[in-house]
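Figure 2 data, in text form.
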Amino acid sequence: MNFTSDAKYCRSIELKAFDDTKAGVKGLVDAGITKIPLIFHQPPHALDYISHAPKNTGTEFDFPIIDLQNFENSADSRKEIVEKVRNASESWGFFQVVNHGIPINVLEEMKDGVRRFYEQDIDLKKKYYTRDLTKKVVYNSNFDLYTAPAANWRDTIAIQMAPHLPQPEEIPEVCRDILMEYFDQIKMLGKLMLELLLEALGLKPNHLEEMDCDKGLFVLCHYYPPCPEPELTFGTSKHADGDFLTLLLQDHIGGLQVLHQNHWIDVPPTPGALVVNIGDLLQLVSNDKFKSIEHRVLANREEEARLSVACFFSTDLFSVSRLYGPIEELLSEDNPPKYRETSIKEFSKHRNARGLDGVSSLLHLKL
């Protein structure tokens, strides 16, 4: 693959050349490159605040952590946790949960499984490489490679785990068993978090379940190799999630940042914790009560790869009939609907066509 920075540079040709290798960003690193290809160069304005992001050095921007250990012990304990969930969902759109019930060894083995997939022989990975998003298992680099302003320094394997499980043979053998175990654990935690969020909105616990908000589950396993020029690109550029709820397992390296009060705030890697964030669809149905906040991942400056596992809770992405809009019980004369109704098909089509361009997917639904 010959990437060039001279006048003969043609972005479309370079994108296809990169894609055709089916080796992803890891393939570039394994080849020993010292300069990142131009297709990964972010626009200068997007890079302005990489070196100026404030650290979490004071209490003003302490990232919220919620301990779930006592949520079943008493009504008062549950009420206290619900209040913390409400405050974090309204002001941050993000928080971490600890003592969530998923054993540490399961979290660690899930990360190990992701590493095994990416660090196996390239020929074993290539059979999963595709841009056909209707497949249950999709491995590639940048789902929006051909539409985003710039490519991100990241490879991804995405597995659609619900509403219909893949056949076992569809899942890579090196991470098959742990993925199935993690799925069983994470879907229970997702259900609990949705219940707590419903209570925080003052609604009955089964309201979102009746709306099929946890019917679909996508698991995205990201691999962020070391980047030789991290000041020129991102691991994941600025975006908000397009689901109802995301549960993220990140490793010890860090790099995830949340846009809070116009500052990029580091999400500290906390052993045993999972990151929870509100997605666009939950902001829509809550009529802006809960916030879907922009976030990003800096390009990896470490010598080892960064890993993360993001679980996206939504409805059936192939559903065409159901419409979603602000929940009627939350509306009043003083709080009229802020968005029109949309189908998941329409919403996903609009979002995927744009890629991670840093513009909210909710804007075209505003009334």
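Caption note: The chain is about 30% helix and 20% strand.
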